[in-house]
């Protein structure tokens, strides 16, 4: 009987711990930490290999990124402070990167591919950490506040 109580107590404690981690915003994808030099360095490498061809080596995006092309699609936006990436919460940026724009907004036509199956969740988090590390403090503070209040 005592053994069953001990096992049940352990299971309840594990479940409570897992729930607490979820409640405080942690997930299996890992944290996006722009102040972590190792995560930022990894993100820079992955960005150069998978993102820079569209979003620019210096995060500058494609020319005229706010104007639709003849096919109705928008050019790749910048990820520096001049763009709108920082207008989105971390979870939104993560989902957009993992699933692609059309995977998040069904029916929306975009050249943004889904990186699910190409990059791991940790690699996506590293890319986002790198991008965020380039933003000035005021932009980072605004985006961090948005990430705390939006899913």
Question: How does this structure look, described?
Answer:
With 151 residues, the protein is mostly helical. The protein folds into 2 domains: 1-28; 31-149, Cytochrome c-like domain (Cytochrome Bc1 Complex, Chain D, domain 2). Helices cover 53% and strands 0% of the residues. It has 7 helices and no strands. It has helices at 2-23, 37-50, 52-55, 90-99, 101-104, 121-133, 137-149. α4 crosses α6. The protein is globular and about 40 Å long. The relative contact order is 0.16.
Strand content: under 5%
SS-based structural class?
mainly alpha
- How many strands, what sense, and barrel or not for the largest sheet? none
* Overall mean confidence score, pLDDT: 85
Give the H and E element order: HHHHHHH
How many beta-strand elements?
A: 0
CATH topology of the largest domain, by name, is: Cytochrome Bc1 Complex, Chain D, domain 2
Question: Total domains, how many?
Answer: 2
CATH class label of the largest domain: Mainly Alpha
- Gyration radius over CA: 19 Å
Alpha-carbon distance between the two ends: 43 Å
Query: Into which percent range does the helicity of residues fall?
Result: 40-55%
| Shape verdict | globular
- CATH architecture label name of the largest domain: Orthogonal Bundle
In CATH terms, the superfamily of the largest domain is Cytochrome c-like domain
Count helical runs: 7
Low-confidence stretches: 3-28
């Amino acid at each position: 009987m005592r053994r069953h109580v001990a096992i049940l107590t352990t299971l309840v404690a594990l479940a409570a711990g897992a729930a607490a981690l979820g409640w405080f915003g942690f997930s299996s994808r890992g944290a996006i930490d722009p102040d972590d030099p190792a995560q930022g360095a990894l993100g820079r490498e992955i960005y150069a290999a998978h993102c820079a061809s569209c979003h620019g080596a210096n995060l500058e995006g494609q020319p005229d990124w706010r104007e639709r092309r003849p096919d109705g699609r928008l050019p790749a936006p910048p990820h520096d402070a001049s763009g709108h990436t920082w207008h989105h919460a971390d979870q939104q940026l993560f989902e957009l990167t993992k699933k692609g724009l059309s995977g998040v907004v069904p029916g929306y036509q975009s050249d943004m591919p889904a990186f699910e199956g190409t990059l791991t969740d940790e690699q996506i988090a590293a890319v986002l950490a790198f991008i965020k590390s380039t933003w000035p403090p005021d932009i980072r503070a605004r985006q961090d506040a948005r990430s705390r209040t939006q899913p």
